[in-house]
Amino acid sequence: MTRNFFAVIALSITFVTTAQTKMQAVDKLINKTDPGWTVVEGWIKTATNKVEILPVDTAKAKEVLYKTQVTTQSPMGAIVFMTGGLLIDDGWIRILGSGNAKFNRTLPDWNKGKAFKEFGEAPSFLIVADDAIGGFYLLNGGGLGTDLGKIYYFSPDNLEYEALDITYSEFLQFCFYNDLDKFYEGNRWKGWREEVSKLKGDEVFNFYPFLWSKEGGDINKNSRKIIPVEEQYSLNVDLRSQLGSNK
Questions:
Q1: Per the CB 3.0–4.6 Å rule, which of 35, 70, 138, 173 could disulfide with 125?
Q2: Is 82 within 8 Å of 56 (Cβ atoms)?
């Protein structure tokens, strides 16, 4: 899989929570004077890749924002508060927001039990997006390396946490503008778009032989089935551990 990125101006996101147990009230997290959605929406309007904005449930969005503990001045907070999530390239990449019937996962609830135990804890990482082939995009909170605030890709074709050296804002722009065919070179099969467009937001394709195995090198020859994304994530983590990596 090719890992090429373009240079962009970074807009950093700031976590409100550190190691404290006291959580900020949701009204304190909503920034009405300088909302990050203005910036994100501008990117979406000029996107070269297809971006679907899933409708938001306002009441639910407030609850999800409170659990996430980021301000709406940040791109992450904006997406949580203003969308049920974003689907990129007919749903190939799914960016977590406040949940929607089409994408029935929220950013904080999906991360609970994986990145932290209780809401309000400082996460060692946050899973901010995933893709249709069982790859996961994580924002480093300190548990993946010293490059705090940078995105990693937990790749299904090698089970490694690949440092992409981009911020969350740059990741959004990667999703909106970058050549995804080039990034996912070798991991898109003939007819993938039609199949992926019918995939639910809590499902992924599971491949056999595994994409990381020598036998699984040609994705067009692999068998595939649809499984819950939770099952795929647990499988990736377990297989990585069995193969000898403790990170």
A1: 138
A2: yes
Chain-centroid distance of CA 177 in Å reads: 16
What residues form DSSP beta bridges with 52?
Answer: 87
Instruction: Identify any residues that bridge with 112 across adjacent strands, giving them in sequence order.
Output: 116
pTM of the complete model beyond 0.70: yes
Give the C-alpha separation, 78 to 119, whole Å.
Answer: 19
Residue keyed to tokens 């082939």: 133
Instruction: Collect contacts of 185-191 with beta carbons under 8 A, ≥24 apart.
Output: 185/1, 185/2, 186/1, 186/157, 186/217, 186/219, 187/1, 187/133, 187/156, 187/157, 187/211, 187/219, 188/219, 189/219, 189/220, 189/222, 189/224, 190/220
d(CA 50, CA 40): 14
Joined tokens for residue 204? 């992924």
How many contiguous H segments (helices) and E segments (strands) does the chain have? 9, 9
Q: List Cβ neighbours of 194 (8 Å cut-off, separation of 6 or more).
A: none
pLDDT in tens, 190-220: 999 999 999 999 999 999 999 999 999 899 9
- Cβ–Cβ under 8 Å, residues 84 and 99: yes
